[in-house]
Amino acid sequence: MSFHILVTAARLEPAGLSLLEAAGCTVDFVSLEGGRAEMERKLATTPVQGVISRAIPITGAAMASCPSLRVISRAAVGYDLIDVEGATARGIPVLTAVGANAQSVAEYSLGLMLAVARNIPRHTVATQGGAWDRSRMGIELHGRRLGLVGYGRIAQGLARMALAIGMKVSAYSPNLARRGDIAPVTAAASLHDLLRQSDVVSLHAPMSAQNRQMIGAAELALLGPEAILVNTGRGGLIDEAALAEVLREGRIYGAGLDVLSTEPPLPGNPLIGVPNAVLSPHMGAATTVARSATAQAAATHVLAALRGQALPPDACVNPQALGVAG
């Protein structure tokens, strides 16, 4: 049986597309110009069975407009763009490409740590502009304490790299107790305990109502003047106004942020122009290897779901949807 698959992007890497084509699927795409409106129109007018999701939000209303829709498979790890509650109510499993981009994002997290600690972007801009400014001293990461908020595959990859350069690593996650001993990484009892004992904090928690602005003024006050905050998770995890204030006042050393609360940032974003904030446009997973791996995982998952085959246990965000009659 062939299926109609809608990809919410203008293209899909060959590693994923070839799997769909080999299965005889009809593969439709959403143009960059058409965006969300085009996606919603196609869902409402086309008998789509599966969606491979990238950067366009999918609401419950959009799902309801497509009675044939049976699965949404993310070519990514985060799922905050999907109305998971709406999908669950309709018996639509939401699947993620868990682990497929972990190495790339972990490496980017380390890159942000180093860029902030050694002021690399600032030195680059100054030197390219003709200055030879060696006045701002950097921070050596060896021997410093890294605190990981969340301890999934990305955080675990970053932990291995940090340990290799001589950092001490701790982690906090509400689910960490179920993992047992995570040595040589140590488990923190709470988020505030982790922040108090860390020189560098890296965020890897998923976006949720409970996690929104989990790093605010009270949490930032627990960090020292040489502390570094890194975020390759989701921008909404941080109160950006509070962070901008402590950065401008020098109450922490710097921040490396690959994600922002609104992307692209609006002109009034308080972090724009802050000299000790290193900002990048959500590039952590943007490597050829990661893009290929996430496309392959998304295609594999969508086909397995449509064929009624077993799914990886950690790929489904809403396993309860599997028991809802479609």
From TrEMBL:
Residues 8-311 form the D-isomer specific 2-hydroxyacid dehydrogenase catalytic domain. Transmembrane segments: none annotated. Keywords: NAD, Oxidoreductase. This is 3-phosphoglycerate dehydrogenase. The lineage of its organism: Bacteria, Pseudomonadati, Pseudomonadota, Alphaproteobacteria, Acetobacterales. It comes from the Bacteria. InterPro entries: D-2-hydroxyacid_DH, D-isomer_2_OHA_DH_cat_dom, D-isomer_DH_CS, D-isomer_DH_NAD-bd. It comes from Falsiroseomonas oleicola. Residues 110-284 form the D-isomer specific 2-hydroxyacid dehydrogenase NAD-binding domain. The keyword NAD applies. PROSITE patterns: D_2_HYDROXYACID_DH_2 (PS00670). Belongs to the D-isomer specific 2-hydroxyacid dehydrogenase family. It holds the Pfam family 2-Hacid_dh.
